[in-house]
Amino acid sequence: MARKKRITLILIIFSTLLLAGPGAVDIANAEPISSSIPTDIERQSVPSTLSSSDSIDDGPAQESVEWNLGWNSFDGNWFYVDSVNPVSLHSGWLYTSGTWYWLDPSTHAMATGLHEFNGSAYWFNSSGAMATGWVRDGGSWYYAGEGGALASGWLHLGSNWFWLDPETHAMATGMLGLGDNAFWLDPSNGGAMALGWVRDGGSWYYAGEGGALARGPISVGGVPYCFDIETGAMLTGYQTDAQGVRRYFGSCGPLNGWGLVDGSWYWFADGIASTGWIRTGGSWYWLDPEAGGAMATGLHVCNGAAYWFNASGAMATGWVLDGGTWYYATGSGALASGWLNLNGTWYWLDPSTYVMATGVQTIGSCEYIFNSSGKMMANCWSNGDGSWMYHSSSSGAIDLKGIMTDSGIQLIDDGGNVRTGWIESQGSRYYCSANGVILTGWQQIAGSWYYFNSDGRMATGWLNDGGNWFWLDFSSGTMKTGWLSLGGTWYYLDAARGGVMLSNGWYWIGSTDYKFSPSGAMVGAWVDVPCYSQYPELPTGCESVALTNLLNYYGFGLGKTIVADYYLPKGSNGNFVTAFDGNPRRSSGGLMGCVAPAITIAGNNFLRAAGSGKQAKDVSFSSISSIKNRLTCGQPVEMWNTEWGSWPGGRYAARWYNGHSYGLWGGNHAVVLKGYDDEQGIVYLSDSINGNVTRNAQVFFGTWQQMDSQAVVIE
Question: What residue range is the signal peptide (predicted)?
Fold first, then answer.
């Protein structure tokens, strides 16, 4: 029973497709399903061993044939058995499994393809099922009505009309002449009769409401057209209607958009040529009203303004080159005239011709010079006619004139005289030799060095020459040497090197070693402070030994115990501020330490005894930048930190003095800050315990500030 259901399903699907119309299925090209003719029982094949003399009801021979009820195949044909005893083969119409079949009464064989009987034509598919709906056979379409009879003549289906030949029943396509009328049966629409515009063989036609093709003049959508009286083809070229409106018709009807007529381009709307401005395809075009709407090319004046149109008619914007002449079309397309600034560059376009200027031009009361690309020259010399040279100021106006000589540009005044010495013009300074030649490069004038650019202008500010940097005074232009401070940054211009800015490393200047970055900024300083060890004589004498190292930097040549033994005040009872509480030669017997006021007193005690004009100064509580500035000026600083160079232990003693709180901290230790390097983030110390050491600058200064910012200098 499984096969029976499959066969029945196939025929139902096939019948459904046949009813869908000519655009839905191609029966002739469908896959044959003759092996699946539906029946209530399975088909049985009949062996081909029958004798031709044997027959049943004039049907096929029956010798040795086992007939079964229903469908049987024999000798390439299908038969339907109504009974097997006796055997009776069906003829005429047969309805089974929801489908109609025709079994030829003369042969009892099942019919396929096109058949005519009882005055009507029918079509049966390869499985014998009678078709309904659209059928395709051998490249032709047919339509079988609900009863299966093939239609002929006009057929109305849905909203479409079709024509089926009365003799062949085949559906017609293309041009159809019926009586005095012609119709177009559209092949692209399944043969449906066309309404509206029709194109065939390069000609246009128009089918009215009844489908008949128009003849003569007719209005379509309010637009008049003209069709050939005999063929119905739409006429082309210019046509003027009864109202005097002139339209142009092309091979596709009234032109819309661009059309080439007699060598000129026009823009048509329903065949009428437009005039004036039109924008299409992202470009603007001018359709000249005086030329009947012909598209303009080249230079044209439109509504009082000049425009330029390329060969395709598109309005230009930006620079335009026409026959060796340059123009500039603004964003609106109008050609610029007069002064024009583009990205900081000035141009002059002649107000009468719109042509971009080159060479020397008189504009207003000034002369200007423009190079070959039209750029106005400024702050430079330019070649003029012959040997004449012209210098343009920052405004572009020519302010100097000269003659090119073998020695350079010889400056000439308006009276034709040679100019010498200092010349000032438009905010710039020049210097001419005795024969009037403008000097360039390095020049020594009256004992000072100056630099003149290639155009002769005196340079100021930073100057890079040959990879070296120099500083030229803003007001005078003289080259500077020595220290220079700009924006809070120090630079050094080395006179010994011709004023070159020092950079990229350490340089010894005076009594101090300075470090300069690649940009020339001073980023480090170092002074050569001696470094005595406090051991073994002064186990707790770091403060006095640091002062000794500081004094010896200034050339006093002290032994390391002199300050501790003779100049350092000593006390007890907790006074560590103005005296050393204990004895620096011992490791116990008091607080065993002191702070900045006591060291300041000790320093001044020694300096007075030595008859020196210097003095010790307590600079505690200073900012880090001021401490570094002292070192930059060659002044080392005694500062309080820890023995291990990082954060201290607890504050084990405190005392107020002169409005400040001073304390002794765990690890209390005095050192001399003798250098720093901002690029590496380090400081250099003379440390009486650890020797000459470096420390992390951030940690060192942070520890110093935590330990009450104690500091002493000699000045």
Answer: 1-20
